[in-house]
Design goal:
Helix content is 33%, strand content 22%. It contains 18 helices and 21 strands. Strand 12 and strand 13 form a beta hairpin.
Length: 499
């Protein structure tokens, strides 16, 4: 998961790009980068949050009316290397700069093709740099001096045949314009918007609609799975369906990754989480009829708040803010390295004993991944005087690696991988545990857009939408940064390559 944004404007874009990255910061905290074009590429990138990477002196020199921006959450490459930050660029053909959200599952084969067969140089272990070079190679093979949208789409047909996995991409082509395209399954999101100005229409691509809202753009539509959209220097729009298979967006976007005020593939994240809470409340009602007593519902901030409110409403119990989040620490789940995650939990949240003491508390969280956060929160709530602590997850048990761009690469990292639901409850110290069913989760999201017939639920069901994901691919993923760091206590240090 990363955050990407691209803007083609009638005026300088750097401030809008920066503001957009701040709004998308929840999608990546490791690094940030901006590339603009004013006849030459202007680049600034580095490790850290957007407000740490970009200072006034950098903003002044990022000139141009077209540009792209990226916030990085490491799933391939080395998280502590600034050289791995995006955008990447190559000088030929024409000059290309690219940002990418997703993961290429055939990275190893592609790397061999690019370096051996195409004689191209790679400076990092990033699959995004490989993707950029595959695109550059296919455009080079066209052997044209005047690149047209038709040429670009022809090259992309070859690119789609070569790359596998998940990819939402925005690319600058020097002297020509901006290109955006999405993988045939639409696993990672990409939206397309428009803003009218005195100098004509301006366009934006972004990971989530919240970036459009913040910058005053109107949502036109989603980039369709397998579609490419090109905007030339006169801001004329060209689109082409390059490939299409089975639409299968990542369901974890609605569970956790996206902001609640975003709309992805025409499904409101907020409304989908309310429906998750409503479905989950049916299980809790049954337990209450069987004698379970709940005095208060407490959301684990912030992602679970919507579901918790709906659960409380459905079961007729007050919902209270029993846990307060430190706003100046990042999202624990997306911190690189198991050791870092463990250290951050103890100062991420603080309980309010007034809402917890002598009460039977139902904690509601979006998911349970490794179990560290859940266990620590339950200990906190008990320490604040709760009589009983129950735990509800609006997501089903996570048991399988994600190879499409979320940092869940090893089965050994999942607390539910070899445990039953009851055993998970005991392991995290809960008096009772409630998991959303997969059927209900799919229904909760699908209700927002019945046109979506399938979702990527691989981390929950073990069913991967792309046919190239074999046991060999999964085993390679388990030898990657997540599994190695967790097992050896490396905290994510060293050479970290997903595939």
């Amino acid at each position: 998961m990363c955050g990407i944004i691209g803007i083609s404007s009638a005026s300088p874009v750097v401030q809008d790009l920066y503001d957009g990255l701040v709004v998308l910061q929840h999608r990546g905290q490791d690094a940030a980068g901006i590339m603009t074009y004013d006849g030459r590429f202007q680049l600034k990138k580095g490790n850290g949050l957007a407000h740490d990477v970009f200072q006034a002196k950098h903003m002044v020199r990022l000139t141009g009316n077209i540009g792209i921006g990226h916030v990085r959450y490491t799933t391939a490459g080395s998280f502590d290397s600034a050289s791995e930050a995006q955008p990447f660029y190559v000088n030929a053909p024409f000059g290309l700069s690219l940002i990418h959200n997703g993961n290429l599952t055939n990275y190893t084969d592609l790397k061999q093709q690019v370096t051996k067969d195409n004689s191209r140089y790679l400076n990092t272990n990033s699959d995004s740099e490989v993707l950029l070079n595959v695109l550059a190679d296919e455009i080079t093979k066209l052997r044209v001096k005047n690149l047209t949208p038709a040429h670009i789409f022809r090259a992309l047909r070859k690119v789609y045949k070569r790359i596998k996995g998940s990819y939402s991409v925005i690319c600058l082509i020097a002297g020509h314009g901006m290109l955006a395209f999405r993988d045939p399954y639409g696993i990672r999101p990409l939206v397309f918007g428009k803003r009218d100005s005195a100098l004509g229409a301006e366009y934006i691509f972004a990971s989530e609609t919240v970036a459009l809202d913040a910058l005053g753009f109107q949502l036109m539509r989603n980039v369709v799975p397998g579609e490419a959209i090109f905007i030339d220097e006169q801001r004329q729009v060209f689109d082409k369906q390059i490939d299409k298979t089975k639409w299968a967006p990542c369901i974890f976007e609605w569970v956790y990754l996206a902001r609640p005020d975003s709309v992805l593939d025409d499904v409101s994240v907020y409304k989908s989480r309310l429906r998750m809470g409503k479905f989950l409340s049916e299980q809790i009602k049954k337990a209450m009829k069987a004698g379970l007593k709940i005095d208060v519902v407490v959301p684990v901030p912030d992602t679970a708040r919507s579901a918790a409110f709906e659960i409380a409403s459905e079961i007729g119990v007050p919902c209270r803010e029993g846990l307060i989040k430190n706003r100046y620490i990042g999202r624990t789940f997306i911190m690189p390295g198991q050791g870092i995650r463990k250290r951050s939990i103890k100062y991420k949240l603080n309980p309010i004993p007034l809402e917890l003491e002598d009460k039977n508390v139902l904690l509601v969280d979006d998911s349970i991944v490794r179990g560290n956060t859940s266990r620590k929160i339950i200990e906190m709530v008990r320490g604040a005087g709760a009589k009983k602590v129950y735990f509800a997850s609006s997501c089903p048990p996570l048991r399988n690696p994600c190879v499409y761009g979320v940092d869940m690469p090893s089965r050994k990292d999942f607390i539910a991988h070899n445990l039953s639901i009851e055993e998970v409850g005991k392991a995290i110290g809960a008096d009772a545990i409630f998991y959303q069913s997969l059927k209900d989760l799919v229904a909760a999201v699908k209700a927002g857009n019945p046109k979506i017939k399938n979702f990527c639920t691989a981390c929950l069901s073990g069913k991967y939408p792309t046919p190239d994901v074999t046991e060999e691919v999964l085993q390679r993923a388990e030898q990657s940064r997540g599994g190695i760091a967790a097992e050896e206590g490396l905290d994510g240090e060293g050479q970290l390559v997903l595939l």
